[in-house]
Structure formats: structure tokens, C-alpha cells
Amino acid sequence: MEVIIQPTREAAALLTAKIIAAEVRKNPAAVLGLATGATVEPVYTNLIEMHHKEGLDFSLCKTFNLDEYVGLNGDHPASYRYFMNTHLFDHINIDKRNTHIPNGMASDLKAECLEYEEAIWNAGGIDIQLLGIGLDGHIGFNEPMSSLQSRTRVKQLNPITIRQNAGYFGGPDKMPRRAITMGVGTILDSQRCIMLATGASKAEILAEAIEGPFCAKVTASALQWHRHAVVIVDENCALHLKNREYYDWSFNHQPEWAPFRT
Ligand code: GLP
Fold it and tell me: Which of 34, 56, 203, 224 sits most deeply, having the most CB atoms within 10 A of its CB?
């Protein structure tokens, strides 16, 4: 795992977008794993700008989102389908038929989860998976104690998560209680993972995930097990990291990062 600290939230999002864009340029038919949440919004804003100004081409890309709430259809403004359409897909040249988000309205949720896993497999697997982190340390909606080998399935949401995301629904009482989420094992299967975390509110859980034990209590810690994971944070979120000197030194000296250093 590599950790890259950027001065601001904007710089962290821009670097994340540049890494995804580089993947798309190298492999125009890339399979992108995508995430939702306020943290990744500026990543999508940057990708849209790169599409318009630099001709970044998504026409052959496929996408798979991490999760969706159970019981919401894609027209619901708080659904992740709606989020993805409005924050990214409506503004780039992606074929919407190639964009995949679990169907939270499926009558057979178990079958939907299996089909989602199959679709990822049939696409050849995810080349690069974007992730955020929840206040309880989750990735996707893999709440504490999720199996680190789990696959796509329905998860009961943590009250912490319900409080965190209630704003999108006009109050915790209106929030769905369950979501379909890729499992930790599904996420670990992607070729590359890139987690973006910004802001002081995530600083403690981020430090636990990165420098604490590899454990189901904080499912983001599973990235320690991944063979090619990059975590990008801003200064505010880096507050509790102990190995800062090494992270900075590594980013500044590794040839792989030369094109990304400004
Ligand atoms: C939800 C999503 C996660 C995301 C998290 C963080 O819980 N399921 O994938 O990482 O929100 O959201 P935010 O960036 O708004 O803090």
C-alpha cells in the first residue's frame, strides 16, 4: 500500500482523477470500479473537465459501482444511480449500457447480487477501483465485522452510516436500512485500488485503517492486503498518520509517480 498526502482536498481529488485518467488513456476499454459520496464528487468534476478539454475518451469503458440502497430506484435523488448519472455519466461519452450499479429494487436481491458478481467477472474484472471511506471505516457498505472474503450481498447499515448519510434523505428516519454492496473480497479482486479520504472528520479512522491492524472491524484496513493499493489523503485527513516521513519520501522518489508530481 502506498500513501500519498496532498496539501488540499482539491489537490487530492485532482491527483486521483489523473491516476484514473492515465488508466483510461493506457487502456481505453478499462473496467472502472466507481464510488459515491461527497469525497469523490470533485474527482468526477475533474474527469468531466478532462473529457471536455483533453478529449479523455470513455466510449469503450465499462463501470461497476460499489453499492446501492435497497428499495430505491434510479430516479430517487439519493440513489447511487442518480448520483452517478448527475455527477459523471451524463457529462461524458460513456455508453450508459456499460455502466453498472446494483439494482436495489430487484425482487430477488440474492439473485441480483450473484448476477452482479457474474457481470464483473464477464467484463474481465475491475482494472481500477475507486473507494472512499465511511466514518466507521467501511469501504462500499462493508460495515464493521464484514467478512474480509465477502462477495456482493445485502448488508444491514450501521447506525453511524445512517447518521452520516441521513442528510441526503432529509433525516435518518427516511434512510433505507439496507444496501447491496460489493464484498471486501470483490473489491480486493480488482487489479488496483485507489482510496481517497479528505477532511479532519476522517483522520482518526483513516489512520486506523492504514496503520492499525488488518481487521474486519475496519474493513478499509483490507487494503493493506491488496497487492496494488494507493491511498490519497489531504493534510487534514493525514493528521494522525505516524509514518508520514516515509510516505512523502516515497511519493517524491518513486519513478512511477514522476508524471504525477507537480
Ligand atoms: C457511503 C458509500 C461509501 C463512501 C462513503 C463516504 O457510505 N457507500 O462508498 O465511501 O459513503 O462518503 P463521503 O465521501 O460522503 O464521506
Answer: 34
- Domain extent listing, the chain: 2-234
Which CATH architecture fits 2-234?
3-Layer(aba) Sandwich (3.40)
- What does the pLDDT look like over 161-184, one tens digit per residue? 999 999 999 999 999 999 999 999
Count of Cβ atoms closer than 10 Å to residue 7 Cβ: 10
Are 214 and 222 within 8 A, CB to CB?
Answer: yes
Can you give the pTM of this predicted structure?
Answer: 0.97
The residues assigned a catalytic role are 67, 136, 138, 143
Closest-CA residue, ligand 1 atom 10, reads 132
Pocket test for ligand 1, best of 70, 129, 135, 165 (most atoms within 8 A of CB): 165
- What is the atom index within ligand 1 of the atom nearest the CA of 141? 8
Report the alpha-carbon angle 94-37-50, nearest 5: 40
Q: Cα torsion at 149, 158, 31, 124 (round to 10°)?
A: 30
> In this model, does residue 108 exceed pLDDT 80?
yes
